[in-house]
C-alpha cells in the first residue's frame, strides 16, 4: 500500500520561530511535493523535488525553503514563521512515469497555526 | 484564466442515488492527465480516478467513473450508489504534459450524502 506520512497532524508555533515540517514516503518515489491549502484558494504548490538535493519552486515559494537529503524524506522549512503562514500543509509523492504512473499520493496533512 | 473549474461549491444527494460532480479544464497541451481526489474532513487527499487525454474509453474505478468529453473539455466524476461515507470535498486536478508533473487543482465541490 502507498504510504506518505507527515511528522505532525497539528502544530502551533509562535511568530518568528523556525518551523520544520517533515514528510516521509515508503514507495521509492522520485517526486515529492509540498502544498498549502487555504479556504477559497484551494491547493497551491510551494516546492517540489524530482531527485535528492534537487528542488524547483512552485507557485508560492516565498517564505519557505525545502530540503531533500534522502530520497524518502522531504522537509519544508519556515525560516521565520508568520501568521499568514497559518494553513494546512500537504505533502505528496509520485513516480516519474507518465500517465497514471505519476499519480500523486498525499499524506494526512499538517494543520499549522502561527500565533 | 482558471485552468480547472468546478462550478458546484456544494452538492446534496440521497444515499444510494448517483451524483455527478462537474469539472471543466483549459489547456492547449495535447498531452494531459486528469485526476479526481476525495478529501474527507480528516484532511487527507485520497486519489480516486485518472483519465489520460489519449485514453479512448472513460475511466472507471468501482463506484467511480469519469465522463470524459474531450471536445467540451469536461471531465465529470460520477459516483454511483452514494454512501454516507462519500460525504467529503472532491477536487478535480490536471497535469499538463510539459509541467514537470505539477498538478493544478480546482476549488473543489463539497458533497453531502443524506440518509
Commentary on this structure:
- The complex is a heterodimer of chains A (115) and B (115).
- Chain A is mainly β.
- Chain A is built from no helices and eleven strands.
- In chain A, the strands form two sheets. In chain A, strands 2, 4, 5, 6, 9, 10 and 11 form a seven-stranded mixed β-sheet that branches. In chain A, strands 1-3-8-7 form a four-stranded antiparallel β-sheet, with no helix packed on it.
- In chain A, strand 7 and strand 8 (73-78) form a beta hairpin.
- The mean pLDDT of chain A is 93.
- Chain B is mainly β.
- In chain B, 0% of the residues lie in helices and 51% in strands.
- Chain B starts with a strand and ends with a strand.
- Chain B is built from no helices and twelve strands.
- Chain A binds chain B through residues 9, 31, 40, 42-43, 45, 48, 50, 56, 58, 88, 90, 92, 94, 96, 99-100, 102-109, 111, and chain B through 33, 35, 37, 42-47, 50, 52, 91, 95, 100-103, 105-108.
In short:
Chain A is mostly beta strands and 115 residues long.
Number of strands of chain B: 12
Question: Major sheet of chain A: size, sense and barrel closure?
Answer: 7 strands, mixed
Report the span from N to C terminus of chain B: 38 Å
Order of helices and strands of chain B: EEEEEEEEEEEE
SSE topology sketch:
The complex is a heterodimer of chains A (115) and B (115).
Chain A: E1 4-6, E2 10-13, E3 19-25, E4 31-38, E5 42-51, E6 54-57, E7 65-70, E8 73-78, E9 87-94, E10 105-106, E11 110-114
Parallel strand pairs in A: 2-11
Antiparallel strand pairs in A: 1-3, 3-8, 4-5, 4-9, 5-6, 7-8, 9-10, 9-11
Chain B: E1 4-5, E2 10-14, E3 19-21, E4 24-25, E5 32-39, E6 46-52, E7 60-61, E8 64-69, E9 74-79, E10 88-96, E11 103-105, E12 109-114
Parallel strand pairs in B: 2-12
Antiparallel strand pairs in B: 1-4, 3-9, 5-6, 5-10, 7-8, 8-9, 10-11, 10-12
Amino acid at each position: 500500500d502507498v504510504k506518505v506520512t507527515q511528522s505532525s497532524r497539528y502544530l502551533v508555533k509562535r511568530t518568528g520561530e523556525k518551523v520544520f515540517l517533515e514528510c516521509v514516503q515508503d514507495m521509492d518515489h522520485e517526486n515529492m511535493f509540498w502544498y498549502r491549502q487555504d479556504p477559497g484558494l484551494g491547493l497551491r504548490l510551494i516546492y517540489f523535488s524530482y531527485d535528492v538535493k534537487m528542488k524547483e519552486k512552485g507557485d508560492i515559494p516565498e517564505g519557505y525553503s525545502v530540503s531533500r537529503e534522502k530520497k524518502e524524506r522531504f522537509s519544508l522549512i519556515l525560516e521565520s514563521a508568520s501568521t499568514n503562514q497559518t494553513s494546512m500543509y500537504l505533502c505528496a509523492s509520485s513516480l516519474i512515469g507518465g500517465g497514471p504512473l505519476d499519480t500523486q499520493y498525499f499524506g494526512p496533512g499538517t494543520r499549522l497555526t502561527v500565533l | 484564466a482558471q485552468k480547472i473549474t468546478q462550478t458546484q461549491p456544494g452538492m446534496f444527494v440521497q444515499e444510494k442515488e448517483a451524483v455527478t460532480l462537474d469539472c471543466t479544464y483549459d489547456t492547449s497541451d495535447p498531452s494531459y492527465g486528469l485526476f479526481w481526489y476525495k478529501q474527507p474532513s480528516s484532511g487527507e487527499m485520497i486519489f480516486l480516478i485518472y483519465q489520460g487525454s489519449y485514453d479512448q474509453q472513460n475511466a472507471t474505478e468501482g463506484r467511480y467513473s469519469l465522463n470524459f468529453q474531450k471536445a467540451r473539455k469536461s471531465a465529470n466524476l460520477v459516483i454511483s450508489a452514494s454512501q454516507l461515507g462519500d460525504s467529503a470535498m472532491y477536487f478535480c486536478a490536471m497535469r499538463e504534459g510539459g509541467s514537470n508533473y505539477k498538478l493544478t487543482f480546482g476549488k473543489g465541490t463539497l458533497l453531502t450524502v443524506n440518509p
